[in-house]
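Researcher: Quick test of sequence recovery. Tokens follow.
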């Protein structure tokens, strides 16, 4: 916290240095809270493991449903970790200091969301090939799965951060975050699943990836503005 607050109080600090300091701080804090770090991965693995037991262990059936199951599990695992994105900063008062500092809030917000994605979305993407083997996803679909997760999970983090910012002042905001952002996750889920299915069937998946990229670009431009405004509303309220 001291590193980030010290950076925010110096008006002459460069934007790159501020971004790097915020990113480094959030990564360090997340690595210290190992339970919060591994919970999304454990949840992701549990959903994938329990699905065949609850439906059917038949390989052909699992292979057909694998794209949707993996994407839904990744979406829910990302959502599970969103409540803590701004919670620690709000509890110790550093979030209010950030809002009062002369440094651009958007830059700090993007750094915090990037740190969250690196520890959740990127981690889920890296374990996706193992999960695809467990669900008998054909090898042809693995590249499409990896690419779609790389493009889609950052959008999940950006959109989820809006809900986290709106509910940061509430004691039990986790359920409310789900209600707020789940409808906004639907396009990412549709295009991500479609990309994997297209890769499995040998159809071109460039269109799905282009749509996921467009959603990511839109999120990078608009989400920091919405997150900053939501934080100001939550803290001032």
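Model:
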């Amino acid at each position: 916290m001291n590193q980030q607050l010290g950076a925010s109080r110096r008006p002459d600090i460069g934007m790159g240095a501020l971004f790097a300091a915020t990113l480094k701080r959030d990564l360090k804090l997340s690595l210290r809270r190992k339970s919060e770090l591994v919970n999304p991965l454990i949840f992701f693995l549990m959903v994938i493991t329990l699905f065949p037991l609850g439906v059917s262990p038949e390989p052909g059936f699992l292979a057909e449903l694998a794209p949707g199951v993996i994407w839904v599990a990744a979406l829910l695992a990302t959502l599970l970790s969103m409540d803590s994105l701004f919670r620690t900063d709000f509890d110790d008062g550093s979030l209010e200091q950030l809002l009062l500092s002369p440094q651009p809030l958007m830059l700090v917000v993007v750094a915090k969301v990037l740190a969250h994605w690196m520890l959740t979305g990127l981690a889920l993407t890296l374990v996706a090939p193992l999960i695809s083997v467990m669900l008998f996803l054909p090898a042809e679909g693995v590249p499409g799965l990896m690419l779609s997760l790389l493009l889609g999970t950052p959008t999940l983090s950006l959109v989820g951060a809006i809900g986290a910012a709106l509910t940061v002042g509430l004691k039990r905001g986790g359920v409310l975050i789900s209600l707020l952002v789940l409808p906004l996750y639907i396009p990412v889920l549709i295009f991500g699943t479609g990309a994997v299915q297209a890769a499995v069937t040998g159809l071109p998946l460039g269109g799905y990836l282009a749509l996921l990229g467009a959603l990511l670009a839109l999120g990078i431009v608009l989400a920091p503005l919405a997150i900053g405004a939501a934080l100001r509303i939550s803290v001032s309220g």
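Confidence is low (pLDDT under 50) at residues 1-12.
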